[in-house]
């Protein structure tokens, strides 16, 4: 499922490069290598822009790990590398990825566009926007594709967002801030090799 809303409009080859970088980073960690030896000069210019990005791993269509950076603090290619490894080995909800699972995981990448603070929750659109809740030290993010996969409406999404932040289901009503964003979402299963 590719969401059509995007400010960046990555080319197909850019997407392939990101997915290949993510897979290579995971493979290198499993092999005990470092993934820092990337020649940035050989990468497409689009991938050198600072962007927020999440990497999600699925195994047999089930979530296997998902972590990312909301803010655009480092170049997209590096954020993708780091979060591929974070999703595979540092998502506290799952055991670190094992060697025998490597071939069974599918990588999905969500490249985030600019965040927008909202005061009216009705500006949030399921399937178009991701949403971030902040209340004190409690923070949670739901990516745009998650409610679609789970069949949630806006209210159900807000309840899950609140619980993910460690709050009561209605915690979003007393949040310090809500932010929405669009994202360009793509999976390696959609990127048929050229030729």
Give a verbal description of the structure.
The two termini are 23 Å apart. The longest helix has 19 residues, at 12-30. A hairpin with a 2-residue loop joins β5 (130-135) and β6 (138-142). The chain has two domains: 12-112, 2-Layer Sandwich (Glycoprotein, Type 4 Pilin); 116-181, Hypothetical protein ph0010, domain 2 (Dna Ligase, domain 1). Residues 1-6 have low confidence and may be disordered. The protein is 26% helix and 24% strand. The protein has 195 residues and is α+β, with helices and mostly antiparallel strands.
Strand order of the largest sheet: 2-1-3-8
Task: Output the CATH topology of the largest domain.
Answer: Glycoprotein, Type 4 Pilin
So what's the overall shape? globular
What's the number of helices?
4
| SS elements, strand count | 8
Give Rg in angstroms: 17 Å
Largest sheet: 4 strands, antiparallel
How would you briefly describe this protein structure?
This protein has two domains: 12-112, Hypothetical protein ph0010, domain 1 (Glycoprotein, Type 4 Pilin), CATH 3.30.700; 116-181, Hypothetical protein ph0010, domain 2 (Dna Ligase, domain 1). It has helices at 12-30, 76-89, 145-150, 154-164, and strands at 53-59, 62-69, 105-112, 116-118, 130-135, 138-142, 177-181, 183-187. The protein has four helices and eight strands.
């Amino acid at each position: 499922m590719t969401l059509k809303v995007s400010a960046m409009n990555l080319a197909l080859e850019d997407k392939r490069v990101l997915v290949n970088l993510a897979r290579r980073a995971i493979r290198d960690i499993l092999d005990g290598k470092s993934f820092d030896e990337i020649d940035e000069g050989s990468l497409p210019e689009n991938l050198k822009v600072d962007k927020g990005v999440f990497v999600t791993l699925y195994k047999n269509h089930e979530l296997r790990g998902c972590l990312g950076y909301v803010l655009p603090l480092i170049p997209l290619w590096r954020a993708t590398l780091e979060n591929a490894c974070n999703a595979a080995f540092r998502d506290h909800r799952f055991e670190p990825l094992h060697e025998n699972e490597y071939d069974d995981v599918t990588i999905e990448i969500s490249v985030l566009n600019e965040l927008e603070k909202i005061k009216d929750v009705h500006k949030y659109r399921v399937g178009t926007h991701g949403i971030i809740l902040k209340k004190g030290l409690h923070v949670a993010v739901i990516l745009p594709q998650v409610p679609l996969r789970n069949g949630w409406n806006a209210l159900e999404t807000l309840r899950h967002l609140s619980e993910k932040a460690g709050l009561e289901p209605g915690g979003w009503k007393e949040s310090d801030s809500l932010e929405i964003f669009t994202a360009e979402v793509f999976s390696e299963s959609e990127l048929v090799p050229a030729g």
